[in-house]
Structure formats: structure tokens, C-alpha cells
Write a structure and sequence with these properties.
The chain is of the alpha/beta class. 27% of the residues lie in helices and 23% in strands. The chain has an eight-stranded mixed β-sheet with strand order 1-11-14-8-5-2-3-4, with helices on both faces.
Length: 317
């Protein structure tokens, strides 16, 4: 079922408001959480109750929670044990509240997805919803130092973990190779004609644009997936037909610093949503909505700019 709209209104409320009362304590510490409404919109659009939804890098389990709340079954893989534990707790809580669906979390490397997942799930996944790790570009949260008698702020909760084997620590080139492996594993888990939704955004590294959306598109194609749609998931609210941005402290700081250097950055307002279809016997996939390029694209571009381009990954306030 194709998406009926290319712009997803996924931030009518802030991220903390979307999570309030639905996630266990400690969940907020993850540095790069998916906005719950993005996962919910994808699940409601591309699946039906009872379908199986997979997130191969599930973090604290946002995709799983939203799938279970909507009456779907959920499977998540997470490399870091601390986040896998929280994902399992969040999924258990969501399953108990919804009364329908089953949530399973396995701890391990998503490049071994087909080995980690239950054998019964292979070829049964209706939808994959995930986001690639952003490594050193995440900025976490901010804490005032006023209570210590000092002036200023410090970062907190800005690391996925300390294991150097985590993909969050690799170079962007190696990240693309690894993500291609993961999407290839996801393709093996899909039912015929299943859907893969990947949310991503670019960022800047020493003033140079890291074009992760284009690289993700290339990774999906290299994994044997078919690009079918490219949408926008809003991270800003809408009021009186205007966008209402909800930037974090560090996003505002980075924009101001960049503008002082003559780099025309803006506060990030959206995530790119790349939608792929797996091969299979189902109906032919829709034509790409925006005529997405079919050739591999380099990560780095010195000339690409635009609204929100180059903001570090992190949750909106």
C-alpha cells in the first residue's frame, strides 16, 4: 500500500510528550531515539494488525513499542546490552498495555540478523523500520552547570556505548558497507513484497556535508531493495500553516556557530524517509515518488546545503 502523502505530520507534539508514560525509566538516555510518531506513521501506513515489524538496530525499542500499540508483532535486534535490556522492558510494557501482539528483543550485531532472529520470523516480516547509527554526530542532552557554581553547560547521554566494535564508532565509509550488509539481512527476513522504511538526515563534519540520505539510498539498492518512495517526516510542529521548530540546545548552538563562519545552516525541521520494497510475488512496486537517483552517491558533498542540512543527530526538545 503506497504512502498517500509525501509529508508526514509526525511532530504535532514534542518527543518527550510523545513518550510520556509509555517508556520505562532510563529510556531518555539513548542519544539518538527515533521520534515515536514517525515509527507509528510508517507502521499504520504499510502494515495491518497482526503483521510482523522488525527494527534491526532498535535502540530503546521505539519501533517495537509503536508496533505493539497498534496491534502488530515486533522483533528488535540491538548491539548494546544496556539498550537491548531497555528495549525488552519497553516492549513488554507495551504488549501488556495493548493486550495484543508479541515483542521479542535479541542482543547482537545486526549484520548477523538472520542468525539472531527466530527461525519462524524469516520470510515473515511485513515491515522494517530503522535508522542508521550516527556515531560521533550525536549531541545527546545538555545539563546546566549552575548547581556546581560554574557557568555554562555540559553534554550528557551522547554515546551509544563504549564498545569500539559498535558501528557508531566506525568511519562513514565503513558505516555504508555495514549498513548495506544489514539491509541485505533485512531483505532475507521480508515476506514477498515487504517494505523497508529508513529514516535519516545529513550532518556536517568540520564544515563538510555528510550526505547520509543519498548514501542510505545507495546502500538499499546495493542490498537488492527497490526504492519506491522518498518522503519527509516533520520534526517541527505546524501552527497556523507555519512550521514550529523544536530545536535542542546544541542544534541552536551549531546553527549560530556555522552562520558566524558564513555557512548558511538552518535548524533541522525534518527527517528524510526512504521507502524500499523487497523483491517478491506481490504487486509491482510503485514508481519512485521523486525520481530518486539510481546510481551510487558519495557520502561527502561540499556544495549541498538546505533547510536543516548538517545538523547533528539528536532529539528535538
Amino acid at each position: 500500500m503506497p504512502c498517500s502523502d509525501s509529508v508526514w505530520n509526525t511532530a504535532p507534539t514534542s518527543a518527550p510528550a510523545q513518550r510520556k508514560g509509555r517508556y520505562v525509566p532510563g529510556s531518555a538516555a539513548h542519544p539518538a531515539k527515533m521520534l515515536p510518531a514517525i515509527a507509528a506513521h510508517a507502521i499504520a501506513t504499510y502494515t495491518k494488525p497482526g503483521d510482523l515489524v522488525l527494527d534491526p538496530m532498535c535502540g530503546i525499542g521505539t519501533t517495537l513499542v509503536e508496533a505493539l500499540r497498534l496491534g502488530r508483532n515486533a522483533l528488535g535486534i540491538e548491539y548494546e546490552p544496556q539498550w537491548a535490556t531497555l528495549a525488552a522492558l519497553n516492549a513488554r510494557s507495551a504488549a501488556q498495555k495493548s493486550g495484543t501482539g508479541t515483542g521479542i528483543v535479541r542482543c547482537g550485531d545486526a549484520r548477523r540478523l538472520t542468525d539472531l532472529a527466530p527461525a519462524s520470523a524469516r520470510g515473515e516480516v511485513a515491515l522494517v523500520v530503522t535508522s542508521p547509527p550516527y556515531g560521533p554526530s550525536v549531541h545527546g542532552q545538555v545539563r546546566s552547570t549552575r548547581e556546581t557554581g560554574e557557568r555554562g553547560v555540559v553534554k550528557k547521554d551522547f554515546r551509544y556505548g563504549h564498545d569500539r566494535a559498535n558501528l557508531a564508532h566506525v568511519s562513514t565509509t565503513h558505516l555504508l558497507d555495514a549498513f548495506t550488509e544489514i539491509l541485505t539481512q533485512c531483505r532475507a527476513m521480508l515476506r514477498p513484497g515487504g517494505t523497508v522504511v529508513v529514516t535519516t538526515r545529513p550532518w556536517r563534519e568540520r564544515g563538510e556535508l555528510i550526505d547520509l540520505p543519498s548514501a542510505t539510498l545507495a546502500a538499499g539498492k546495493a542490498a537488492g531493495l527497490i526504492p519506491t518512495e522518498r518522503c519527509v517526516a516533520l520534526l517541527a510542529g505546524i501552527r497556523d500553516s507555519r512550521l514550529v521548530a523544536r530545536p535542542s540546545f546544541f542544534q541552536m548552538k551549531n546553527v549560530r556557530d556555522a552562520r558566524r563562519q558564513g555557512i548558511p545552516l538552518s535548524v533541522v525541521q525534518h527527517e528524510d524517509v526512504l521507502v524500499f520494497t523487497g523483491p517478491g510475488r506481490c504487486a509491482a512496486p510503485a514508481q519512485p515518488r521523486d525520481r530518486v537517483a539510481t546510481r551510487s552517491t558519495a557520502f561527502r558533498s561540499r556544495t549541498c546545503t538546505g533547510t536543516g542540512a548538517g545538523q547533528p543527530k539528536g532529539e528535538q526538545s
